Amino acid sequence: MLMQLAAEEPQSPVVPVVPEIVIGLICFGIIFFVFYKKLLPAINKALDERREAIEGGMEKAEATQAEARQTLESYKEQLAEARHEAARLRQEAKEQGASLIAEMREEGQRQREEIIAAGHTQIEADRKQAAETLRQDVGKLAVELAGRLVGESLEDHARQSRTIDRFLDELEAKAQAGTEATR
Amino acid sequence: MSNDQVLAFETDCHLFDDCGFPAPSEWSFIFEPLFTIGSFEVNKPMALVFLSTFIIIGFFWAAFAKPKVVPGKLQLLAEVLYDFVRRGIAKETIGKKGEPYVPLLVSLFFFVWIMNIWAIIPFAQFPATSIIAYPAALALIVWCTYMYLTFKNNGLVGGIRNLCVPSGLPKGIYVILTPIEFISAVFIRPLTLTVRLFANMFAGHLLLLVFIIGTWYTMGTVVGTFYSATSLIMTLLLTVFEMFIQALQAYVFTVLTASYISQALEEAH
Fold first, then answer.
1. CA A147 from chain center: how many Å?
2. Is the ipTM of this complex over 0.90?
3. What's the gap between Cα A134 and its chain centre?
4. pTM of structure
5. Alpha carbons B162 and B154: distance in angstroms, whole number
6. Gap between the Cα atoms of B264 and B76, Å rounded
7. Where are the domains of chain A?
8. Is there a contact between A27 and B49 if contact means CB atoms under 8 Å apart?
9. In the structure, what pLDDT confidence band is assigned to residue B22 with cuts at 50, 70 and 90?
């Protein structure tokens, strides 16, 4: 077959023939038409949608981040406030404690003084009573002793007590004079 | 499909058979009709062009007809390819005004590329673009677009100025430069656009044929086997090289189209 054809002059490869040009144009036209009318608008739309989706997603992420930052700030604020409050409370408690202690100390002091005063009064009263008792007992003993010695009864109460009192007063006066002399 | 369609050479001729190396020739680019539609005869390159059209539309239809915001694998692949033309060529060359021309550039790039790729697809093994009519048809479309945009954007006088009077040169130069620019813009550009693509694919196909035929032709004898193996290695290397050239030529064709459009859209100074 090829040999038979070779006998003729081949068609020059650099000269385009019309039917093939027409076929080329038609085929290109079909491809162009389909791309232009259908496929590229479709894909461009999808690409735009995708870009929007990505941008939307980024916006959303940014909003979330901003919100998170805001929340963090508010938390920090609250924390600072709480710390402040705690410090204030502590200070207050300290002050209260101090005043309480002072109050109690004052109270204690007062009670102590009262007790001491009461003690003094008691001691004074006891002393007085003891002195009184002692005076009577000493008088009685002295009278008894003197009665035995002189053999006479010195039971006369009035006289007796007057004598004893006088004696004791003298003694007291002497003792006082003694202490004043030593001073 | 008969052998004549698939194999572009005599298959029963071998080294030392005294029949000579069946070198590829113009005949390698001429095909008997595969079938006829009515009275119209469809040969192999035509069939490949039709197939290219179906494949491109089929692929992108499957990928883009019901696009998802979150893409599947197919859509992702198609998006990468589309984005390459849209951003890598249209935006890069024309700039912001390039968006309306993206469909044209996308169609050109993939049509040229797929037509080129047939060169290394088993059983097809013929780049449709090595038939000069197809590059010529595409160049014609580019030329029409270029002219239309030039005059639409600049008016009649402005359009002619845009085509043949580059700005910012000393006045004396224009005497020489204006006709050169005019011829260049109006005649040479579509011609080079056609020939560059055609010649690259034509030469690529011839190269592959030389080594493929060589591999087969030298097979059979002990000495020939060494030649054959070398030839086979060359075929493989050239196939890889052709893959690169196919994509590159599609890219160049599209970039040049974009740069012509960009020039047509340029404001008059």
1. 86
2. no
3. 67
4. 0.71
5. 8
6. 33
7. 38-176
8. yes
9. confident
